[in-house]
Amino acid sequence: MTTTDDVETTSDAPRVGGSASRRPRAHAQELLFPTREQYLEVVGALRDEGFETCADLCAVDYLSHPGRRLPEGVVPQRFEVVVNLLSLSQVRRVRIRVQVPADDPVVPTLFDLYPGTEAMEREAYDLLGVVFDGHPDMTRILLPEDWEGHPLRKDYGVGRVPVQFKGAPGPR
Amino acid sequence: MSDATTTDTGDGVPHADTVLPDPVSGAAYAEPSATGTERGLLIETSEGAQELFPRSRTAPDELRREAGAVLRLPEGVVVNADDIDVEQTDDETMIINMGPQHPSTHGVLRLMMELDGETVLRTKPIIGYLHTGMEKTAEELTYVQGSTNVTRMDYLSPLHNELVLSLAVEELLGVEMPARSDWIRMLLVELNRVSSHLMWMATNGMDHASTSMMIYGFREREMILAFFEKTTGLRMNHNFIRPGGTAADLPDGWEDDVTVICDTVLPRLDEYDELLTGQPVFRQRSEGIGNISAEEALALSLTGPLLRSTGVAWDLRRAMPYLRYDEVDFDVIVGTFGDNFDRYSIRLNEIRESIRIIRQVIEKMPAGDYRVQDKKITPPPRGRIDESMEALIHHFKVFTEGFKVPEGEVYVAIESPRGELGCYLVSDGGPKPYRMHIRGPSFVNLQGMPVMMRGGLLADAVVVCSSIDPVMGEVDR
């Protein structure tokens, strides 16, 4: 597992403007890069450490942006599952980025640790096709059941569904 | 409802592995437990419909889960698993469908509820009727155009949506915002919080059959929308808070307008108190209804008034201050019992706190620029365009090509009227977001509904739904 600090990764971003005094950053976060095998263990450990709630879970398809900046030792894969944990007691956030390969887009579910990820994992499955192993109800949530493909994937054909005019062939 | 009844086997045998025709595609229905082992995406759409199925088609594990997702918590069983009668047959219970056109579901929310007499046993919210692919659209729009898109998500608090996107973009850009722009943004989002809560008071009153409250809530909200129209040009979907500042400065005489709003709304809140808070019928219909505990709320990732009603004092404005919330005085309103009445009181008093913040903003509003004067991010002042060729080029560039944002990713969260509104933004260094994900508070908060409704009466389902305050535009995005 590789750890880095959010402040580090954006510190070389060009600073533009800026005459006012530097204010404390409200959105600084710790970043963790566990492998798929370490994922459950790491999240479980964080939960015991006092991260009471899972604020957010989403997936990203890096198909057309392969050269992204990752810390040493992290092998980039096509998909990434991004989990935001929140500790109310320590007023702290941590962001976990897991690499998920394209040929086997499966990660274990966090449902047993954080039941609140139920809808978020369904959304990630629906829109990006990442399967969460062990999820009790891995169905589509936003799109109809018979929808084909996962629209937020970068190779999804936008505009593939014809606009319905009178006499035009039906969708799909 | 129709498919729930037609696919009923009728033999009353509670087993899950009966293969029945899928109500949608006609293919064999894949049982839920098969999804874990079926790897690969060939079967990607054959996992079955999203409906709530009769007991004969639901595995005992699934029954327990639907009764309250928190059941799966490894330690400390919140709902006693033995209390759930998995042997109960379909004959004793009934699945009814509510929505998606039901007027009290606050948009196009569809609820499927299993009833035993008048008691709600299981609830499943079915969403997606308003899905317009806004996260996909965001990848096709530049950062300048982005706020036009996100403002339509939570249409009752559009300025919060714009703010969270702008903060995320500015975080990636690393720009330092001028003080005045922060204070203008605070004024607008707090006014928006008031208008959103007033709207909630109105619809919540309506769900309690108090049509007067409906009229009063809309009347007060209209004043705020009129001020928004004067400031931004639009009543809703303002596209006013943009990456780099706001679109314009506040109009002349804004202090007077805002003071009038504060002076009018505050005494009206006391009238609401008289109308609802002390009224026995309202109290009986809201006290002890839709209870949820702090442990359940945290496990289900609930935020905002729902979480605060359980006694957890968590408000991002206080805990992780953004803008200038660390420079103003306000209280975080907390409930005790986690019931509908607590959520009502919290929202009512949050209006008072927001007005307190607004009054401080009027006092402390600094002079200065309402946006970053960086030609690469914001358009130059109108006057410069006539004088300078460079200014004209920059103006053209900003609105056609947009500005480039350094490569990186960031998660920014703010406290919207409904809870934690987050934006996860990935940039590949181009002028359009590589990926924009919005963490919608209503989307997550809806997960609390099965827990809050369980064991309650059908007549209370409507008010429980109302007290969650879902905005379907944001749920479905």
Task: Provide structural commentary.
The complex is a heterodimer of chains A (172) and B (477). Chain A has 3 helices and 7 strands, in the order βαβαββββαβ. By secondary structure, chain A is of the alpha/beta class. Chain A has one domain (1-6, 27-172): Beta Polymerase, domain 2. In chain A, strands 1-2-5-4-3 form a 5-stranded mixed beta sheet. Chain A has a two-stranded parallel sheet with strand order 6-7. In chain A, α3 (117-128) links the parallel β6 and β7 (131-133). Chain B folds into 2 domains: 2-92, no CATH class; 134-174 and 177-371 and 406-440 and 463-476, Cytochrome-c3 Hydrogenase, chain B (Orthogonal Bundle). Chain B has a 3-stranded antiparallel beta sheet with strand order 1-2-3. A 3-stranded antiparallel beta sheet of chain B has the order 6-7-8. Chain B has a two-stranded antiparallel sheet with strand order 4-5. In chain B, β4 (241-242) and β5 form a beta hairpin. Chain B is mainly α. At the A-B interface, α1, β3 and α3 of A face α3, α4, α6, β6 and β7 of B.
Q: Tags for this entry?
A:
heterodimer, A: 172 residues, alpha/beta, Beta Polymerase, domain 2, 5-stranded mixed beta sheet, two-stranded parallel ribbon, 3 helices, globular, B: 477 residues, mainly alpha, Cytochrome-c3 Hydrogenase, chain B, 2 domains, 3-stranded antiparallel beta sheet, 8 strands, 10% strand, disordered N terminus
Provide a concise account of the structure shown.
The complex is a heterodimer of chains A (172) and B (477). Helices cover 17% and strands 24% of the residues of chain A. Chain A has 172 residues and is α/β, with parallel strands linked by helices.
